[in-house]
Amino acid sequence: MSPGVAVQRPDVPNFAHALNHTWHMGRTGRSAEALEQVHQLLEQARAAGDDRGIAGCLTQIGWFCLQLGHAEQGIDSAKAARDMWARLRKPGGEAHAGAIYAWLLVELSLVDEGFAEASTAVGLAEIVDNPAILAFALNAKAVALMYGRQDQLVGPLLRRSLALVAGTDDLSAQALYATNLAFSQVSLAEAAENEGRLEEGRTWREQALVNNDLAIKVAETCGDKWALRTALCNGAEYYALLGREDVALSYLARWEEVIGTVGLREHVHYLYTRGELLTRMGRLGEALEFCELAVELAEASSHVDHQVNTLRRLSDVHEALGNHAEALQLYKRFHTAYQRQMGEVIRRRAQLLEMQLETSKLRVRAAALEEQVGQDPLTGLPNRRSFDAAFAQLQGSRFCLAIADLDHFKAINDQYSHVVGDAVLQRVAIILTGLGRQMRAFRLGGEEFALLFPGLELNAAAAVAEAVRGELERADLTDLAPRLKLTASIGVASSAGGPATELMTVADRRLYRAKALGRNRVVSNDLADDISMSA
What we know:
mainly alpha, five-stranded mixed sheet, single chain, Serine Threonine Protein Phosphatase 5, Tetratricopeptide repeat, 6% strand
């Protein structure tokens, strides 16, 4: 069943069943048929004035269009579904439709916009008690990162998606996330090999083959023909790159045996994959035939991305055949299509400018929802609202407070990107949670965190804060960005059992003193020689 799209209609009890049935059709390779039926359901929902039914139908239309390679047709439906779920105050449906919308934006080469939408969807999904919705939103964010060539950040998101659906009956989701994880690992292999780290590249490729084969097995088990075709084509490409043309051919033969209607995206993918494989094998005549079919199919559609990809591959075949004039002519067509593709991106981005104000409002709403549940959506830590409540409960008792601020965090964002900055904050949250036996950690905002130490004396709290500082300094963040290092400055104060109204002021003062003394240290009193550790 689709996460977040089931619709309960007491007046028409069969409607929810019909909508779930169309979703199942899409999960079993009948997306074209499902799309036709869900359009009929949409008309029924509109005639009945059923907003939840309309939102559910529009969500599915967006997804089926993505599966079939009709991103332009699906994006308006996905956005309308997201907005309608928001008006209905259903964050689960909003997160699910928003994730589909994000993926469609990425398909249309609007990667930055897609990443922003996916991040909003993840924030909404974090506050919904539905692991399937969160897994799907995390997957959409991972897809945006893959297209943005930030593959080192993709693995943790997809592994979390897989963990969320592990042991459930949502095998289609498991196949999808494993397929995408394998794709990102191949990209990591290529990056490592380009830098001369051949052994690392081979390790990544081996992991990719394991995950992709797992995706194939799971897709076959649940009958998800769309996921199966995608994984089989990807597997053929992976084995071809390793020189295993025999295995690659067997994967494509299995692709041909999968019954059901084949969407545009799947068909073009298969044709140019086979063309590339045949080119590697020296069977250039056959390769030419398949690449010409791919170009013909792509040019009959309005999908400029397909046209660019297929023209480039056909040009490569003619070059291998020694048909340099034809190759040059195709390359010129490829260049024209590429320019047209860039123009389409600009046009789409201009259209989205009108939506940005609305998107900002959605993010404000997501933040408001976050405040209601008391959890920071990025790190998963309790937020400022939760801190204020916990702090108030400790008033009059003996406890300590520490304020921790990450040093030079703006430079991390500026040098490595906000994507890496977000990943750093998530890593900090993991470290703080792991050291949480004697303290409670909260994210106050930005790069600032609060630590509460109920019942601890000042020296004991300062010792725990020092352990936090040391763990942050020792953290290996090179998987996020080369040579990335992190330190923190921490100010600690004690309530001493008395009034705690000035505690924040004292902790803040000591934090700023720690920074003034050179950063990467803990300050727990106002004496001139109070420095726990210096870098």
